[in-house]
Structure prediction request, 81 residues.
Amino acid sequence: MEWWQEQILEEYKQYLHEKKMQDYACQCERIAPHVIHGAQIMQDGNQWCCILGDLPTGIVGFGDTPEKACAEFDRVWREGK
Prediction:
């Protein structure tokens, strides 16, 4: 095999690996509790809130960004309060 063919093959392998990692990340996001259960994301003062149900009985996550609020919601969902 020529050196340039080997280079192309290595680049293609790297591309496939990156694509698999992106697909995995997307799949993880799709199965996150806040996505599956349709939690609402809204701003609450200077923070963001991800909530399912009502305060104080609902499941809630707060954070400085929507992403952090969703991550906190998912943590609470999995681990409890």
Q: What stands out?
A: The mean pLDDT is 91. The longest helix spans residues 3-30. The chain has three helices and three strands.
